[in-house]
Description:
Layout: H1 11-23, H2 33-38, H3 43-57, E1 65-72, H4 74-81, H5 87-97, H6 111-114, E2 117-122, E3 128-134, H7 135-142, E4 147-152, E5 155-158, H8 163-166, H9 178-182, E6 186-191, E7 232-237, H10 240-246, H11 264-273, E8 277-282, E9 285-290, E10 298-303, E11 305-306, E12 309-311, H12 312-325, E13 329-332, E14 334-335, H13 345-355, E15 359-363, E16 382-388, E17 394-399, E18 404-408, E19 420-423, H14 443-446, E20 450-454, H15 460-469, E21 474-478, E22 496-499, H16 501-513, E23 518-523, E24 534-535, E25 555-558, E26 562-565, E27 584-587, H17 590-607, H18 613-622, E28 635-636, H19 648-651, H20 658-661, E29 666-667, H21 672-681, H22 686-693, E30 718-722, E31 729-740, E32 746-753, E33 759-763, E34 766-769, E35 775-785, E36 795-805, E37 808-818
Parallel strand pairs: 6-10, 6-13, 7-10, 13-15, 15-16, 16-25, 19-20, 20-21, 21-22, 24-28, 30-37
Antiparallel strand pairs: 1-3, 1-4, 2-3, 5-12, 5-14, 8-9, 11-12, 16-24, 17-18, 17-23, 18-22, 19-23, 26-27, 29-31, 31-35, 32-34, 32-36, 33-35, 36-37
Helix pairs in contact: 1-3, 11-17, 12-13, 17-18, 21-22
This protein binds 2-acetamido-2-deoxy-beta-D-glucopyranose (7 copies).
Amino acid sequence: xxxxxxxxxxxxxxxxxxxxxxxxxxxxxxxxxxxxxxxxxxxxxxxxxxxxxxxxxxxxxxxxxxxxxxxxxxxxxxxxxxxxxxxxxxxxxxxxxxxxxxxxxxxxxxxxxxxxxxxxxxxxxxxxxxxxxxxxxxxxxxxxxxxxxxxxxxxxxxxxxxxxxxxxxxxxxxxxxxxxxxxxxxxxxxxxxxxxxxxxxxxxxxxxxxxxxxxxxxxxxxxxxxxxxxxxxxxxxxxxxxxxxxxxxxxxxxxxxxxxxxxxxxxxxxxxxxxxxxxxxxxxxxxxxxxxxxxxxxxxxxxxxxxxxxxxxxxxxxxxxxxxxxxxxxxxxxxxxxxxxxxxxxxxxxxxxxxxxxxxxxxxxxxxxxxxxxxxxxxxxxxxxxxxxxxxxxxxxxxxxxxxxxxxxxxxxxxxxxxxxxxxxxxxxxxxxxxxxxxxxxxxxxxxxxxxxxxxxxxxxxxxxxxxxxxxxxxxxxxxxxxxxxxxxxxxxxxxxxxxxxxxxxxxxxxxxxxxxxxxxxxxxxxxxxxxxxxxxxxxxxxxxxxxxxxxxxxxxxxxxxxxxxxxxxxxxxxxxxxxxxxxxxxxxxxxxxxxxxxxxxxxxxxxxxxxxxxxxxxxxxxxxxxxxxxxxxxxxxxxxxxxxxxxxxxxxxxxxxxxxxxxxxxxxxxxxxxxxxxxxxxxxxxxxxxxxxxxxxxxxxxxxxxxxxxxxxxxxxxxxxxxxxxxxxxxxxxxxxxxxxxxxxxxxxxxxxxxxxxxxxxxxxxxxxxxxxxxxxxxxxxxxxxxxxxxxxxxxxxxxxxxxxxxxxxxxxxxxxx
Length: 819
Ligand SMILES: *[C@@H]1O[C@H](CO)[C@@H](O)[C@H](O)[C@H]1NC(C)=O
Ligand SMILES: *[C@@H]1O[C@H](CO)[C@@H](O)[C@H](O)[C@H]1NC(C)=O
Ligand SMILES: *[C@@H]1O[C@H](CO)[C@@H](O)[C@H](O)[C@H]1NC(C)=O
Ligand SMILES: *[C@@H]1O[C@H](CO)[C@@H](O)[C@H](O)[C@H]1NC(C)=O
Ligand SMILES: *[C@@H]1O[C@H](CO)[C@@H](O)[C@H](O)[C@H]1NC(C)=O
Ligand SMILES: *[C@@H]1O[C@H](CO)[C@@H](O)[C@H](O)[C@H]1NC(C)=O
Ligand SMILES: *[C@@H]1O[C@H](CO)[C@@H](O)[C@H](O)[C@H]1NC(C)=O
């Protein structure tokens, strides 16, 4: 086999290759590897010869090793498969070829430790492998033709139920009727593992595990095969990549098994598909039925996150395994830094999953309200923002000067504190006492008093713990302007409340005027009926840094103050010193909104088995709503001078509406090939597109003077980018195709709400369908000029395009950006 010929540059190797080729009359090995070896010499012999030759030719490696993820060309594999070679053998051969070189080099005593180590091979959603390599080995590897792209492994982070009712799901009706719930849908959750004994994962009444399921229940520390049941049908742990970076996992701190020692994974899995549990609450708060969005779905837990985060190579291995096991939906409440799709391992694996029909749902990140912070933004992923429901946990701070302020807390003790003196900063302790960090407070100063604590430096519940330990009687947690009016409800260990940034400013102001100020904090438990939804300030924002031609995030679902399952070994504050234990806990983050969406996708899948991931995504997006329960536009918890409303760059198409998504009327479908075309249109090279396509790919040739338009991706929303300062007007024409999935004979008429300074025309204005499954196309032109824009910082204006027919309203947001 002409392994050597796979080298691109090193001419001496090419020569070597040529010699080998001629000796086996291999003939043009680059394009005819298979034909070469089969009719000549026995395969194994050729292979070894090549490797011998290679081993002699490679340079000496340096001692430090790093884990790399190697993406390879699938078409090369096809050629190899006709030689009956397993991918693993091919990868091992590649690694051997870049191995430590001179066998007799006496400088190298530590030969063993220098050999490349194969951690994982990837075959289902991407082609390639992960291996520990020295820098030299890495360099030789990148020279091999057939190796598309090599990236160092890295650590990603977690983005840390009543919401079903808020989402309009009702037992016995629609998506929660018997027939929809009976069909089998499997949700795979990549997270910190799971607590299998939790009541949310009992399997009473569930039928047999579907025959198509290929997963397993891996045993490990405090976890056995019997921990799975007909609800939790699979559990696996991935740690090779993590341990290669961080060293061995300390068994006293974490379970080297799928068991959850953090709480995050148990919470997210139960949000997506946990059982319906009546009378669930956290200390009586949020009392009611806790239920996964699709509570009859099966769950498969893939533990990829550990104490210090989640290694990319482990995540890839888990995605692979989950797709091979047979999951229908993947839920990932984690993410890394934004980067072009061809360098983003998660985007690459998600592409493979999409091609296998698996719906891929991800959290948008918690880096809002700063613009362009959205993560997980590939168009084949569903990117989920977080918002509030109408359920609140209100408190009131009453100052001795009569002023009152609203706040939020899950404190579960007395309903009211006494009127107590306030202390802050130097009246509470020493350096950093304003942040209430451990050791900064003076017991004599804070004893029996209410301490004001600024957000930042340590956790919110940790501040409460520090105040309590120092003898404080209460705490007022002060938002800074960046956190705005965001009101997290936390299960504090003492009477404590969060207040928004404006209340924080006033309270500090009054205190500085009058150090004798006193306060009481009152707690009102659980209330319903607040204006909602409201987009959370922390929810990451668009536009996407990597790709401005797709609106991101895509959608919002509840992600603030979410009640869901919690392991019995972890306190609700997650603090070691907090000895309280709960069955359900309330937490916030896009980590919590993502599994809501995963559950909704499972619901849609259960009534539309044959829909592609893109069709399900379109159904969820075009049926989303943009008005709140008070009939106003959905607002943003982050209020600026210019607006208090949410935009497509904070909530995408709006708030998910599961019942609407089950019957969307029309869908915008997208195939794998369409996405590859799209990548060509945003000027990715053939080589870069090949990485995502996992095979040698050539972008389609277009006529001279024409080019592929990014706007032609059949996405269910519109992002238009005009050049700021460009003279004259520019017109971009986008093409879309909709498939009729509603009523056989129906006409749709278009309605456009246009952003200021942009002309929009749609052709045709009416779409008349004659049957189900029929596809019709339309064109929409956006005309704008750059001349009115006075800043380079990027300005965005928004609108929408809606097809209305019968009772259907198929809505796409429009985001126009000048940059
Ligand atoms: C259940 O709900 C689905 C989706 O809304 C619908 O298609 C189906 O007809 C309903 N079935 C029954 C028996 O009500
Ligand atoms: C191991 O799992 C059991 C449940 O089967 C649990 O009760 C126990 O606390 C766990 N052990 C540790 C060390 O957490
Ligand atoms: C594991 O963690 C425990 C508790 O923090 C510590 O005492 C122990 O030394 C650690 N073991 C290793 C091998 O690091
Ligand atoms: C604060 O520090 C002390 C002493 O180092 C430690 O015992 C305690 O657990 C810490 N408290 C918190 C909340 O971390
Ligand atoms: C605060 O209280 C002290 C002692 O009771 C008193 O001397 C002082 O005048 C008070 N200051 C104000 C601003 O009320
Ligand atoms: C791609 O390259 C062409 C030619 O350089 C350029 O006109 C076009 O704006 C680029 N498109 C994108 C999406 O960057
Ligand atoms: C600038 O905007 C105004 C409306 O705001 C419009 O009438 C005018 O045509 C625009 N100028 C250019 C050069 O586009």
